[in-house]
Design a protein that fits this description.
The protein is an alpha+beta fold. It has 14 helices and 14 strands. The strands form four sheets. Strands 7, 8, 9, 10, 11 and 14 form a six-stranded antiparallel sheet that branches. It is globular and about 65 Å long. The protein starts with 15 loop residues before the first helix and ends with a helix. Bound molecules: protoporphyrin IX containing FE. The site of protoporphyrin IX containing FE has 26 residues, from strand 8, helix 11, strand 11 and helix 13.
């Protein structure tokens, strides 16, 4: 029996090779792990043998994807706390530093690395000299420690740091701190519900979503295992030992600039009263509470936030602008460049968390001047099976490309949130189903890359065998 990568996996009925795979896979790949409190430790190794011994001992503190899924169902049944998440990723340089590069994973972008000039050109990234100091040198590994409380997360983080040999150096540490709105849904620093739309790899998760939407999936969130899992070629048995490519990007958010841009857009478009909220929704594609703009003119979403929509009823973008962040990064079949089945292959499993302290309440209605202009942002994290076709494609060919989506006679412009490059002149109109015509220019860039790297998150079997 082999693992069928062409479809979703029912984990509750998995047996044979599929069960072995889940028992050796890291958590947080197939399904998000709680990480409201997160420490991301970026390491460089000085001694191969010591680094190997360190990773073997860290593996003793890790759980499998199977153990995580069991914890989630036990929590649903009886409540109670789960155990912390510990994840380990290696860069291509990291495999070499360990002397473990013989059969290492061969994704082209992974081998190139995020710091390579070629990567920078493709993604239009800022120069490495502008990154935070810890990201200017060669990174070998990342250790992620996540949990629901600061106390349990920090305790596990300290245990791991105690294991670190003197020959290894912590280049950087990021501390993620999740934030929620009044309904308890996770938000990012601009104030919008985030992490809602995901490719779902587990049959049980796809079924749960169907039940949320009366069984009618206008947008089908299901994605095949092959969109996130790759055989771990360096592991003892790549037939059952799998891993995933992991993107990390520290994205600083200038909240003050973004909130000012929302207000300016509302002014230029002549939006008044409650309708001013629509300016931000036109930038993101959803209102702050997550309501999709293409289905509703005001906020006031159902709970849970809807993800059951496409742009089929809004081909001309009279409701949700073409350049809205979620329309650029998932056109849901309306990108105009590819067959919808191929277009879906670009989606990745996003696992980000916000970072940074701020004096203001992100949910409060205060003037832009009271918002932070730096020091806060998103630790963007995502799992991919082919970096060049998922993360890199999304950033370079969709977000940074003013010509996407492809529409006759229209240049939609850059993704207003994450687009890197010349902003151009394309703008917004206030149409919502064909009302008044007023246009406004693009919004200024308020997200800046401060550092990042590509990793492979190997199987537990590989780490144990080091
Ligand atoms: C600070 C940076 C970012 C912010 C503030 C941000 C914000 C958001 C928000 C509010 C949503 C809507 C929630 C949802 O549908 O899940 C969203 C969705 C999404 N974002 Fe971002 N994002 C950021 C960076 C990125 C990056 C770097 C990428 C990829 C290159 C990305 C790709 C996506 C995708 C694929 C979706 C889901 C779209 C869909 O399926 O409808 N985001 N983002």
């Amino acid at each position: 029996m082999t693992i069928d990568l062409s479809t979703t996996l029912s984990w509750t009925t998995a047996s044979g090779d599929a069960a072995t795979m889940l028992g050796e896979l890291q958590p947080n790949i197939l399904k998000a792990h709680v990480r409201d409190h997160l420490s991301a430790l970026f390491l460089t190794f000085g001694d191969a043998a010591e680094a190997r011994a360190f990773l073997v001992s860290v593996t003793g503190k890790m759980k499998s994807a199977k153990a995580h899924l069991d914890e989630v169902s036990a929590f649903k049944a009886e409540g109670g706390a789960g155990t912390p998440y510990v994840g380990v990723g290696l860069t291509a340089a990291g495999y070499r530093a360990l002397g473990a590069d013989g059969n290492m994973p061969q994704d082209e972008a992974f081998l190139r690395g995020m710091a390579a000039p070629d990567t920078r050109r493709r993604l239009n990234d800022p120069p490495r000299s502008t990154f935070d100091p810890g990201y200017r040198g060669e990174i070998h590994a990342v250790v992620l420690v996540g949990d629901a409380t600061d106390k349990t997360m920090t305790a596990r983080r300290n245990e791991i740091l105690d294991l670190l040999p003197d020959s290894a150096v912590v280049l950087a540490e990021e501390t993620g701190l999740g934030r929620v709105n009044a309904r308890g849904e996770g938000i990012e620093h601009f104030g919008y519900v985030d992490g809602r739309s995901q490719p779902l790899f587990l049959t049980e998760d796809v079924d749960a979503e169907k039940n949320n939407t009366d069984g009618i999936n206008v947008w089908n969130p299901a994605a095949p295992l092959g969109q996130v899992l790759v055989p771990d070629t360096a592991a003892p048995d790549p037939g059952v030992h799998f891993g995933s490519y992991f993107v990390f990007r520290k994205l600083e958010q200038n909240v003050r600039r973004f909130k000012q841009a929302e207000a300016d857009l509302a002014d230029t478009l002549g939006l008044t009263g409650e309708d001013r909220e629509r300016a931000g929704a036109m930038i993101i594609g959803r209102f702050e509470d997550g309501t999709p703009l293409t289905t509703q003119r005001e906020d006031g979403a159902e709970s849970p936030v809807s993800n059951n929509f496409t742009y089929d009823g809004d081909r001309a973008a009279l409701k949700c602008p073409f350049q809205a962040h979620i329309r650029k990064t998932n056109p849901r079949g309306a990108g105009g460049a590819e067959d919808p089945a191929d277009e879906r292959r670009h989606l990745m499993a996003r696992r980000g968390v916000t970072y940074g302290e701020r004096p203001d309440d992100p949910n409060a209605d205060v003037p832009p001047a009271a918002r932070p202009s730096g020091g806060v942002g998103l630790l963007f994290m995502a799992f991919n099976s082919v970096l060049g076709n998922q993360f890199e494609f999304t950033q370079a060919v969709w977000a940074n490309n003013p010509g996407f989506p492809i529409v006759d006679g229209v240049t939609p412009g850059l993704d207003p949130v994450i687009g890197q490059g010349e902003r151009g002149s394309s703008g917004y109109t206030v149409d919502w189903g064909g009302s008044a015509q007023r246009t406004a220019g693009p919004v200024p860039q308020s997200v800046t890359l401060r550092g990042g790297e590509y990793f492979f998150m190997p199987s537990l079997a590989f780490l144990r065998s080091l």
